[in-house]
Write a structure and sequence with these properties.
Structural class: alpha/beta
CATH topology: Metallo-beta-lactamase, Chain A
CATH class: Alpha Beta
Shape: globular
Distance between the termini: 45 Å
Number of helices: 9
Helix content: 25-40%
Strand order of the largest sheet: 1-2-3-4-5-6-7
Strand content: 15-25%
Largest sheet: 7 strands, mixed
CATH architecture: 4-Layer Sandwich
Radius of gyration: 18 Å
Number of strands: 15
CATH superfamily: Ribonuclease Z/Hydroxyacylglutathione hydrolase-like
């Protein structure tokens, strides 16, 4: 696909060329009346692509009122800090637990570097966002976008600071990572360290199903049917059990064994996603250790 794909009238998916590959990561541009919103911002490397997409669509940078961030992991939020100076009327909507990490991203960057290792070079930089441009969103809070409302939905599990955004008039649900990765028509788990929480995630999926959305919009990557929420619940449970079988091995040995299993079963484990699998194994192992320690 090209840089911009129209999903529905007024709703566009921008391929941010995540990890230098198409079809792995994106951000959404949503036009409602004269107002424009971004849903997730990609990494800081996505800035020029997003600004070019706005121009190609004939939209003014002054029309952008909101940048809705599902969470502050740099592949979703790293671009917000470099976009804000270019979007004079925009405010950044983020979970209250994530706002401090956008005002001062020092710890966020260090955590990302620790979690991603050699892949960190793909995540770009993270510029601080002035506090007056940040809006910490409460669960259920709504935001006006032209004639529409955008509702924030607290959805911990992937991270404790995860939000989804629901547009009830259109049945659109921007899921971030709350329903996993959806790559080339296949769901993949994203149970990354340090805060994966199975019980919280199952509760979040139940909340999202209750919204009865008509279309899910994945940051990784593109639109999907609402039934994927239930399918992801089953995948998540099976994934945790798979990792549990290897929990007594050294971490690197467990990662290698599980990647070998996945490849033999026909799962995609190529360069674009092998790092995601590895982080997802580590996230579950950390979760299991916390549970065994009574945490």
């Amino acid at each position: 696909m090209g840089l911009v794909r129209e999903i529905l009238p007024g709703l566009f998916l921008v391929d941010i060329d995540h990890f230098g590959e198409p079809g792995l990561g994106g951000a959404y541009i949503f036009v409602a009346g004269e107002d424009v919103a971004l849903f997730d911002s990609g990494t800081s490397r996505a800035k020029d692509r997003l600004l070019q997409a706005l121009a190609d669509l004939g939209l003014s940078q002054k029309q952008v009122r909101w940048i809705f961030l599902t969470h502050v992991h740099l592949d979703h939020a790293g671009g917000a800090g470099v976009l804000i100076p270019e979007l004079p009327n925009a405010r950044v909507v983020v979970h209250p637990r994530g706002a401090k990490h956008l005002a001062d991203p020092t710890k966020l960057v260090a955590s990302t570097q620790s979690a991603t290792g050699p892949r960190f070079r793909f995540y770009g930089e993270a510029q601080p966002i002035p506090e007056e441009r940040l809006h910490p969103a409460q669960d259920g809070e709504t935001f006006r976008l032209g004639p529409l409302q955008v509702q924030a939905v607290d959805t911990p599990g992937h991270a404790p600071h995860h939000l989804c955004f629901f547009v009830p008039e259109r049945g659109l649900l921007f899921v971030g990572d709350a329903a996993g990765l959806y790559l080339k028509g296949r769901l993949l788990p994203t149970t990354v360290p340090p805060n994966f929480d199975l019980e919280a995630w199952l509760g979040s999926l139940a909340r999202l199903e209750a919204l009865r959305a008509q279309l899910l919009l994945f940051t990784h990557f593109g639109p999907g049917e609402p039934k994927l929420l239930g399918e992801y619940r089953e995948l998540l449970l099976a994934w945790v059990e798979r990792v549990r079988r290897h929990r007594d091995r050294p971490e690197e040995e467990a990662v290698a064994a599980i990647l070998e299993e996945l490849e033999s079963e026909g799962w995609p484990v190529g360069p674009g996603v092998s790092g995601d699998w590895s982080m997802s194994v580590r996230g579950v192992l950390q979760y299991l250790r916390r549970k065994e320690a009574g945490g």
